[in-house]
Amino acid sequence: MTIISSEILEDRQQAHPQRYVWEKHTDHLAGEHFVFCAAELGADVNANMLARVPQINQSLIDGEIGELTGRVESGEIEPLDVEPVHPETDTLADRRRTFFRRLLRYVVNNRDIKIARIVFYPVWYYLKFESTYTAQQIATYLDITITQLQKLDSRFQAIYDNLAFIDSDDSYLGEVE
User: Which of 40, 92, 121, 167 has its CA 20 to 30 A from that of 115?
Assistant: First the structure.
């Protein structure tokens, strides 16, 4: 589990029937995460605090994947060089697989072809040409169906076939518009 300790910093009663609770959760990298929430007077704030831990863990994973996606998109890091650290209970291979799946979903929801080229194309190229995976293994790895993989493959094959045009500068855009 990513969160290794949780404590209540303040439990302050306000107007009846409510009180405000300030929590501190510490992760395995010594990062501190604070939560401020309202609770009813009779509520078990310790149980509520512990019930929030899975949400905080998921938030840490989502935040890290978002940050890494931004770094990949800006060109700061190559997608195949990414090494997520959350959750530390998974192997690096599992964390990378999760990252690639989320990266694929990010690309699918983005309409800019240059983003797809920068962000997911290196992963597709590796899986298709450099790995020894079969199509079914790639689909399983990316958590998609074989039909979805075929669509993805045909779209990225088109990118592969037109790299010179896609990678050229954007000066033609002003002429077309």
Answer: 92
